Amino acid sequence: MKRAGTQHRPFPVRRVEAVVLGASAGGIDALSAVLDGLPANWRIPMAVVLHLPESHESHLAEIFAQRLPIPVHEALDKMPLVDGCLYFAPPGYHLSIERGRRFSLSCEPPVLFSRPSIDVLMASAADAYGPSVAGFLMTGANEDGAEGLLRIHRAGGLTAVQDPKEALVPTMPLAAIARHAPDHVLRLRDLRILLQLLEPAHAH
Question: Does the keyword Transferase apply (predicted)?
Answer without folding.
Answer: no
